[in-house]
Automatic annotation (TrEMBL):
It is a multi-pass membrane protein. PANTHER family: ANION EXCHANGE PROTEIN, SOLUTE CARRIER FAMILY 4 MEMBER 11. It comes from Mytilus galloprovincialis (Mediterranean mussel). Pfam families: HCO3_cotransp (PF00955). One of its GO terms (biological process) is monoatomic anion transport. Residues 1-281 form the Bicarbonate transporter-like transmembrane domain. This is Solute carrier family 4 (Sodium borate transporter), member 11. It comes from the Eukaryota. It is found in: Membrane.
Amino acid sequence: MLADYALPVAVLAMSFFGSFVFKDIKLKPFTYRANVEFFVVAPIHTLPWGAVLGAAGLGFCLSLLFFMDQNISSALVNAPANKLKKGAAYHWDLFTVAIINAFLSIFTFPWVHAALPHSPLHVKALADMEDRVDQGHVHQIVVYVRETRLTGIISHIMIGLSLLLLPYPMSYIPRPVLDGLFLYIAITALFGNQMFDRIMLFFTEQAAYPPNHYIRRVPQRKIHLFTVTQILQLFVLCIFGFSPIPYMKMVFPILIMLLMPIRHKLTPKFIEPKYLKALDGH
């Protein structure tokens, strides 16, 4: 029970230490612009046609990223291992996200969509987990998930109410505390990720491999080859995604889409489809 509140407790505790115990150290605080008006329609009508066409091109790239991120997150949430009873609605979810973001764009609000890692983490927070031992390896499985919309509604209402905490006490939260929070979430999201598990196999004795289904069905050399190809693709994505050049970042969604033909057309040329199905979890 206490572990469910570890993150907010850590943020409160470290914010206290950063703002009061180490007050002599100049930390960058949480900042916001107080003079910004809400629900002001963006002056779209003042844009020339050239800007509209340019925005349409950039919007297409952004839509690719939304499509991938939304559907990947939904697929992970609706994975068979989560044992959800309510059916998936990928098309309706994407349609709803499009309608919401169209409204948000008119008022220059941030966009929303299902994203990693908090969408799968939300499912785990609602799940009853059970430890299972298989050939000396302990792993957790989902026993039951409380499928409810109340947690999402209440959490987003609380996010909206957080505006009442501006400028104080929100300004007491140092930026390094938030950076550490996001870093912790990113690191903890790695555990249970199949790619990360396969990377760890490079540093694990073969006799100590966990009894995963793909290890039983795929030769070791093919597993490592598949992992290396994924690492190379991740490296290319990081180059474009973290580039200081804005125009390179615009290509990032297109690179994400290119991963699909690479996976379905190029990868099967050197890894048999039956092994790819096992690595994909089928």
